[in-house]
Amino acid sequence: MAGKKVVLVWNAKTPRGWRRFPARFETRGNRQVLLHGSVIDGGEVTQYDTGRYELRSYRDGKMIYTQLRDGEQSNPDAAATAWYIASRQARGNTKKVDPFKFIKASTDLYVRDLEQQHKTEMAEKARHVLEEFRLSCSVDDRRLKGITYTSGVTRAHILRFHTFLRNRGNSPRTIADKHQRVKAWLKFCKVNTSWFPPVPKFETTLPNVYDKVQIDDIRGTADDYLRLAIDLCWQLGLREREMSHAEWGDIDWSHSVFKVQGKIRPHYKFSVKDSEQREMPIPATLLARLKERHEEHPKTRLIVGNNEDLPEGHFLRKVKTLARNSGLNCTKCEGCQRKGALAECEEWSLHRFRRTFCTTLLRNGVDLSTAQHLMGHNDLASTMRYLRPAASESVQDRINAIFG
Fold it and tell me: Do 236 and 285 touch, CB atoms closer than 8 A?
C-alpha cells in the first residue's frame, strides 16, 4: 500500500449516485468499533447501507483507491482488519502481521480453508458459530473486556458463550457442538487450548421423525415443486444440500438408481459429506414423477433448481412458511410463539424427513448394514440410533401378550 496514510472509505450508493466517504469509528471502552454504513454527508450523520469498503492512499501526490477482497468489501470487521494491516505497512512497519492473531481475520481464514477442502456445509456452520461467538464476546460484561486477538480468548469467554447460547434457546447438544467448533478454530490458529473447559454434557436424544399424518398433511398442501423436494429427502434420505444440488445426471434411469456425488460447476460446487459417494434405489412412483419433470424441463441441469437453474437455498424457509400458512404449526414451541412471518415452527425441518426415511427402513426389516450404506453413515452406531423397537407393531404385540 503506497503512501504513509491509509484511510478506510465507504463507497456508498446515495440518492445522488455512488459517493465515497471516510468510514466512521466509535470508541467503546478500549476499542475502536467501525460504524457500518454510517457517514458524514453534508455535515450530518447519514446511514447508507448499500456500498463497499475501499482503502484510500496517495502515490506521488495522486489519490488512489484500492479495492478490498470480496469477503472484506461489505464486512465491517474484516474491512477494519484489512485497513489496520495496510496502515501498519504504510507507516513503514515492515514486521509481518500474522492474521491468525486477529479474531475476525482468522475466522475468515478458517472458513476459507474449509471451503478449499470442499467442506462447504461445515464452512457455513463454522461461519455462523464464530459470528455468534464474536457477538457473545461483545456483550457488555464488567468482568470481561471485548477481545480482538485470538490469544485473548479465555475460559471465561467460552463459559459466557455457553450462557449466551442457552439464553438464545440452544439445546445442550447444540451448545456442545458449537463448543467443539470454537475449539477447532482456535487450534487452527495454533492457540494452546489446554485450558479449554470440558464439552458441556447433554442427554442423547432419540431422533425425532414425522408420522404418516404429518407427512400426508405437508405433502398434500405443497405444490408439485416443493413436494418433489420433500420427497427427495423423505424417499431417498437426502440431506438438504444433497437435494438442492441433485442433477438429472445423477439418475441412472435404466436401473432406477440415484447417485449422491460431488460436483464442481461454474456457478456452484458441492461435496458429499465425509467424501463418500453412495447410490440410492428410487421408488417406482418417485421415478415416474422425476421422468415427468425432466420432460417438462429438459434444458435444466438441477432437478429442483431455482428459476436460474441454480441451487435453491430457501427450501427450509419454504417448508416452514407452508406449514404456517396451512395451519400445521404445533403452536407450542418457541418458534410458534413469534408473530407474523417470524412464527416458524421448530417441528418442521428438512432433515427430519431424512430421519424418517432411516427409521422407516429399519421398521420394515431393512438390515442395519444396508441402512448404514443408504444413509451414508461412517459408523454403525449412527444408524443404530434410529432403531425404535418400542414403536414397532411386533414388539407392541409381544408386550400386550405378556402383560395384557
Answer: no
Cell of 339: 408473530
Tens digit of pLDDT per residue, the chain (404 long)?
444 688 999 999 999 999 999 999 887 665 677 888 899 998 899 999 899 999 998 887 788 888 887 767 887 877 887 887 788 777 765 555 566 777 877 888 898 888 777 777 788 889 899 989 988 877 655 445 556 778 888 899 999 999 999 988 888 989 999 999 999 999 998 899 999 999 999 887 788 899 999 999 999 999 999 999 999 999 999 999 999 999 999 999 999 999 999 998 988 888 888 778 999 999 999 999 999 999 999 999 999 999 999 999 889 999 999 999 999 998 888 788 877 777 788 889 999 999 999 999 998 889 999 999 999 998 898 899 888 776 677 778 888 888 87
> Where exactly are the structural domains of the chain?
7-95, 103-188, 212-389
The secondary structure of residue 301, as a DSSP letter, is S
Cβ-based neighbours of 80, under 8 Å, separated by 6 or more: 8, 32, 34, 104
d(CA 325, CA 336): 12
Superfamily grouping for domain 212-389: Intergrase catalytic core (1.10.443.10)
289: cell is 414423477
In 48-168 the beta strands, taken as DSSP E runs, fall at 51-59, 62-67
What gap in Å lies between CA 107 and CA 223, rounded to an integer?
A: 40
How many CB atoms are closer than 10 A to CB 58? Answer: 15
pTM: 0.65
H helix or E strand, kind and range, residue 42: none
Round to whole Å and give the CA distance between 188 and 111. 11
